[in-house]
Structure formats: C-alpha cells, structure tokens
Amino acid sequence: MYRYDEFDEAFVRERVAQFAWQVKRRLDGSLTDDEFKPLRLKNGVYLQLHAYMLRIAIPYGTLSSRQLRQLALIGEKYDRGYGHFTTRQNLQFNWPKLRDIPEILGLLADVEMHAIQTSGNCIRNVTADQFAGVAADEIEDPRPVAELIRQWSTLHPEFDYLPRKFKIAVTGAPQDRAAIAAHDIGIGVVKNDAGAVGYRILVGGGLGRTPMIGKVVRDFLPKADLLAYLEAILRVYNLEGRRDNKYKARVKILVHEIGIDEFRARVEAEFAKLDGPTINADPEEVARIAAYFAPPAYEKLPPVSRAYEAMKAANPAFAAWAEINTFPHRQPGYAAVTISLKGIGEAPGDATSDQMCAVADLADQYSFSEIRVTHAQNLVLPNVKQADLFALWQKLGAAGIAEANVGLITDIISCPGLDYCALATARSIPIAQDLAKRFADLDQQRNIGPLNIKISGCINACGHHHVGHIGILGLEKRGAESYQITLGGDATENAAIGEIIGPGITAEEVPDAIERLVSVYLAERQAGETFIEAVRRLGLAPFKAAFTKEAADVAA
Amino acid sequence: MSAQKKTPLPAILLANALLDGDVVFRTASGWSRDPREALVAEDEATANRLLDEARAAFARNEVVDADLVDITRDEAGVPVPNHFRERFKVKGPSHRPDLGKQAEFGVR
Q1: Can you tell me the distance from the alpha carbon of A375 to that of A438, in angstroms, rounded to the nearest whole number?
Q2: B19 at the A interface (CB within 8 A)?
Q3: Do A480 and B84 touch (CB under 8 A)?
Q4: How far, in Å, CA of A393 to CA of A453, rounded?
Q5: Where are the domains of chain B?
Q6: Cα–Cα–Cα angle for A258, A184, A261, nearest 5°?
Q7: Chain B contact for A34, CB < 8 A?
Q8: What is the pLDDT of residue A554?
Q9: Which domains does chain A have, with CATH numbers?
Q10: Is pLDDT above 70 for A393?
Q11: What is the rounded CA–CA span in Å between residue A491 and residue A374?
C-alpha cells in the first residue's frame, strides 16, 4: 500500500488544523453559513436530514487493517457504531457532530486518511477495480496510476473550482469491474498490437439526471503521457463547461453537445500545445509510487489446494459461499474473497464497528493486512490462501458477514435514500431490504444467477440505477413515494443505460414487479444465458408486457 | 429559509442545530430536540413570529436550514408533518427504529 511521505503528512495535518479553525470561526460568527458551507464541503462534511454526514475518502478502495480499525473506533466513539460504504468506495458516517469533526479528521490523519476530494466541484477521489493487483485477468495493476492521479489532482490549482464535480475511475483488466464508462473519465489499461501497455481513455460518462455512457477519446495513450493528456481534457472542460446551469455543467453534456470528434480534436490540440515533460510525472516518482504496490510475500503453492477441495466436498454451504464469493487470483493457490455487506434484510453497504474490527483482524490473519472496498458496497480480502478459506468463512459467519450472494439478485446496490439524505425524493434502503427478503432463498438466487439490482432514492443516481440490470428510482408522485423501474442497464465493459419499462409503482408493489420480470427471464432463457443476456436477446417487450399487466392488475 | 412560499397551517418550525446537526423544534421558549414540545402555529401571526425567530436564531449561529412545516396532530396531540420527507426527518431512519427521535422520544 502507498505510505504518506512527509509532504502528504504535513498537508493533511495542515488541513485538519485549518478546518478546526474554520469550525471555530463559524461558531463564533466570523464566518457566515454561506462562507462556511463550501469550506465544510471541501472536507467531506454534509448536512443531511437528521445530522451532519462525514464522507471519508478511501483512495481507489484500498484500506489497511489499521485504517479500518480506526474507522471502527471513530464509528464507536463519535457515531452510532456503524458506517456506510458507498458506490464510490468511500465510507460515510451518518451522525457526527460538527463540534467533533476536527477531532475525527485528526484521528483519520493518524492513519493517513482524510475527507478531501469527497465533495465539491473538484476532481473527486479516484476509484478502481477492487481486485486491482490480484485479478487473474489483469493486464497491469491500476493502483499506481490511481495514486499518481490522486497526487496530481489533490489541490490542483487549475482544477479546484471546476464547473462541476469530476469523477475518474481506473481498471487494469478488460473485464470492467470499476464502471469506468459511468465516469467523467474512465481509464482502462490496454495492450496495443505491438505489445506495449498503455491506456484507453473514455470521457463523458456519468449517471444523474442525464445518464451517458463514456466515449473513447483516445484508443491508446502511451503510459508516460497520462497526466498531460488528463490535463488537456480537464482544460478543454474547464474552459467550455457551463457554469451558468449546474444541470448542464458536467463534461458529459459538453461531449454530448459538441460531439466526441470535436471534443477529441480540441483535446488533442491542447495536448499538442502542452509542455508534456513539465506535467507528466518524473519516471523516478512513478517508480517510487509503483514500488508501494509490489505484490506481498506470497507462498509458493500448488494452483489447487487439496484441503480446500476436501472442505468444499464435505460442506455444501461452504462450497456455495466459496463458489459465489471468491474470485480467481493471479497467484497460484490464492483467492480474492468478497465479503458481502448485503445480509438479507440489512441496509446495503452498512457495517458495524464490530464487523469492521472483525474484518481488520481477518485481514491481518489471512490477507496481508489489506482490505478493499467495492463500488458494489462490499468488502474484499484480496490475498487469501485457498487452504485458509474454510476457517475464514467460519469466522465471517460468527461476525454475521458470510452471506453467499455476491453478484446475485440480493447483492443490491442502494444509496442511503430518504432515510438519511437531504436530496432524496424517496427511500431506497427499505426497498432493498424487501427485495432481499423476497429473494432470500439461496438455491433460487443461484438458479436466477448473476443479476444486479441498483436503487437510487433520487435522480442524482448515487445508487447507479441507470446501469443496473434492473434499476429502481425512487421519486415523489402526488405526495407519495413512487418507484420507476428500468431494465437492461449494464455497468461493465458492455455498458448500457437501462430503459423505463412502465409507469411508477408504490413501494409495496416493487417485490411483485421484480419477481414478474425475473419470471419472464426464467421462462424464456436459453441454456447458460444470464438475465442481462436474455434481456438483450429478447428486447424489452416481453418484460414490459409482464410489468404492465401487473400494473394494470394493481389498478383494477 | 423559505419565507416566500406560503406554508399551510397549522405548522411547526424545525431546523438543524448548527453545532450538533440534530433536528430541533421551536417551542414557546426556545429550541427543543423533542418534537412533542414543538409550538404549533395555528394562525398567520404565530407562523410569522416563528419565522422571525428562525431568522434571529440563524443570525445568532444557533440553527441552520430552518423551515416551517405543515402538520396534522395525531390522536395524542403530537404534531406530525404532512409530507413524508419531514415525517422521516422528525422520526429518524425508517429502517432503524433504534435510532433518531423515534427511539429517543417514542414519536411514531
């Protein structure tokens, strides 16, 4: 993992001191609310329905056990004993008091953490594939480049007051697990015909009220040119992006309005003018950063552990969990383990302080003290020996986090919605809970197979509903909560925006409606065909018919 | 503070405390964290007085996001906001009955 140098350390400490002073001046009236608001937002502090909310950056979703333990402690001491992992791989505390936040930020600084770039119109915390550095299908570990972008973007003087927020995601594998096409800039590590490793750059993706899939602005960018190219994109956006209308201010609108070809021409022209060597990182610095992400001291193991195979054969519940919640590791004899934070009936992405401590202990014991956060709101132990999986599974069970549902219908993404959020128009957590209870049977879940349900409590789409195979958007309709269902969205390398399949329905109607859609799939699927593949082949019509029939039945 | 839009009566004034962020209610004599103690404005004059007090409290750096909210009294006489958004704001997260004012004050 990356470790702060003296500059990082001094910078974060200075920010804590500044914020403590800003809070003090707000309380004594030296700063007005209008003056204070952008300052608190620059430090991840929001005001939600019931309390303040603190959003803590987890750069590219990588945490050490020490950091996770500190988050658990903060949750215990300053919050209500739990935190919420978000779709941007961050952690939110829902109940901190403003008077305590400077102290909390100090505790974060003690473990090389902060809440900078989690809010405001700046380049936000960079997200990445949760299996970065360990995935068997990876071309190259994307974390060094994510860290480089973090350092380049932090307080970049030219890009600190952009027209709107700006999100970057990076993946090192052809299979996109970081939803890069749904970001302002998506970076994919690629290999060209000559065998050289470089980047494919997407631009103009995003969700919210105007969902767009990112478009390729550069098919192959040499690695060394990355920062200068990003700078060129940001410059074109910064100059042309609309500051007069926040609903049209994201780069996706600019790309959409002038077209990707014109946008590319402007970026390339700017890129040609820039003095690359003064912007691009010094190769020595790149090497220094990369060294922090060197693989841990793996043992030399056979590709398949016989003890592991024997435990699976003897214990079907363990075998099911292992099949669903582990991911192929590049190192023989190891696995990457996803810990589901989607217990049936629980709030998606919530973890108690006790659970965080349990995961930190297990990371120390089984995974070189490292944890990842996924954009699907789960946790990952990236480096577990196959032979340790059984013991790990038992201990996860004791902590209440051994749900075997990763990627299945109950592994639901959900924003906090109207249970916490001041922007929300409807609740999302109870919808997720009802759906998880409806589809709780594991055999049935496995029979249905991979299916992503994503729920947002408002048009801002923090719950990524546009790219859910089934998306659910909570709105207000005539003074009551109403839910709009979309179908056919996809957050992977086959990125697509889902389409609305019928009129809005009530919260009570949602489980039946979703079950009806799943029934169409089960009746129509071909051998080996997943839900999203069936939707693509069949089109929306049969699903719409089933959905509309139900809506009509309810009306009648 | 949205003094421009006319809030239907009866109404209560709720806000977030600046220091803690907690939801607070204007009472006859100050601010309370207990929704049962909220002063209910039944007439225009009281509603205007509440808004004046909200402005003053904002200026004194006591509260932020103060707003008049139209309510209906339940059978026990406790004011309940008419809009579901403010009902959640008064009660707490609907999936966590152990948290928020629903836990602390038993408001339903």
Answers
A1: 24
A2: yes
A3: yes
A4: 25
A5: 11-103
A6: 30
A7: no
A8: 57
A9: 6-110 (3.90.480.20), 142-291 (3.30.413.10), 306-398 (3.90.480.20), 413-555 (3.30.413.10)
A10: yes
A11: 13
